[in-house]
Design a protein that fits this description.
Elements lengths: L18 H18 L13 E6 L5 H12 L3 E6 L11 H9 L5 E6 L4 H8 L3 E7 L5 H12 L9 E5 L6 H13 L2 E5 L15 E3 L2 H7 L2 E4 L15 H8 L3 H5 L6 E3 L12 H4 L6 H20 L4
Parallel strand pairs: 1-2, 1-3, 3-4, 5-6, 5-8, 6-7, 8-9
Helix pairs in contact: 1-11, 2-11, 5-6, 5-11
Length: about 300
């Protein structure tokens, strides 16, 4: 694999990547996707690199995906959970990370409830920082794997119509996807109840819609987002049942459209709310492809950020 590197030493958000960076990640991920489908799924690319996974919020898919990507690259891995750490005793974020860095860690993958926490770390410590989700701000590797999954089904992003449906207001996935898709040339419409669409969202170059039928009729791809009840401090809609009635994607709705729409979801799915099972598990769904692609894309990001060290 060619010795190439990104224009940045951290992955703090899609906002800081160039279009060339994104294409380089995709091309590198293509190579790693071949690796993870071989009988021997490991390569020695990062065997001298130590990576700390710092998760200050609960995570299953992202944490496992990063850990698997790191081990496929032969890195040494340290897993840190704030629920079983000195953070509970009042230790600051910077002290926590400095203590881990004193163990000679080269890269930090971090999920944190505070927007900007990875950027704060990048200013204060000497390690590559990868943002695995910071509050309602960004989730860059999710957007990259989403776009990488779309790329497998379409010849180009230019003019591709992508709908992002659901809880846009609380979603870091939505913001990162918008940045990524717009940089690649796609058209984006966000759809959901008015209370779940941020004010001024159109300043990001997207269209807004409150009608799921019209939105899916327009779209080539629909990325359906989870309703994030844990982030909602007030009621944004009357009930989950009413949300499902007006914005849930079911088989009847898809069958009423004039053409097939590719269905995506970053997980976890609230089945029967934003997606019915007969949609999530259908031939139109690429949700499991997203999970598989997540490992290859994260391998690519880790490899490219570590390249200057080699």
């Amino acid at each position: 694999m060619a010795e190439l590197q990104l224009s940045t030493e951290h992955l703090l958000g899609i906002k800081y990547l160039t279009q060339e960076d994104i294409h380089l990640i995709f091309e590198t991920a293509d190579n790693f996707k071949e690796v993870i489908n071989r009988p021997i799924k490991k390569v020695p690319s990062l065997r001298d690199v130590t990576i700390a996974n710092l998760f200050f919020e609960n995570s299953t898919r992202t944490r496992i995906s990063f850990e698997l990507a790191e081990k496929r690259l032969s890195a040494d891995v340290i897993n840190f959970s704030s629920s079983a750490s000195s953070v509970k005793k009042g230790e600051t974020l910077l002290d926590t990370v400095n203590n881990i860095l004193s163990m000679k860690v080269d890269m930090v993958v971090m999920r944190h409830p505070a927007p900007g926490a990875p950027a704060f770390l990048a200013e204060h410590i000497d390690a590559n920082i990868i943002n695995a989700g910071d509050g309602t701000h960004e989730h860059p590797t999710q957007a990259l794997l989403d776009a990488f999954s779309i790329r497998a089904h379409f010849d180009t992003f230019k003019g591709l119509k992508v709908a992002i449906v659901g809880d846009i207001l609380h979603s870091r996935v939505a913001l990162s996807n918008i940045y990524c898709l717009k940089k690649l040339g796609a058209e984006v419409t966000v759809c959901g109840p008015p209370t779940l669409l941020p004010k001024h969202i159109e300043s990001l170059g997207v269209q807004t819609s409150y009608n799921i039928n019209e939105t899916l009729e327009w779209a080539d791809v629909a990325n359906i987002l989870r309703i994030q009840l844990e982030r909602q401090d007030i009621k944004y809609f009357p009930s989950l049942r009413e949300y499902a009635q007006y914005f849930g994607v079911n088989r009847r709705l898809l069958d009423s459209l004039s053409s097939d729409v590719v269905i995506m979801h970053p997980g976890p799915i609230n089945r029967g709310v934003e997606l019915d099972s007969d949609v999530a598990d259908s031939d139109q769904s690429i949700i499991l492809n997203q999970v598989e692609n997540g490992v290859a894309v994260r391998m690519a990001v880790l490899y490219l950020l570590a390249a200057p060290r080699s």
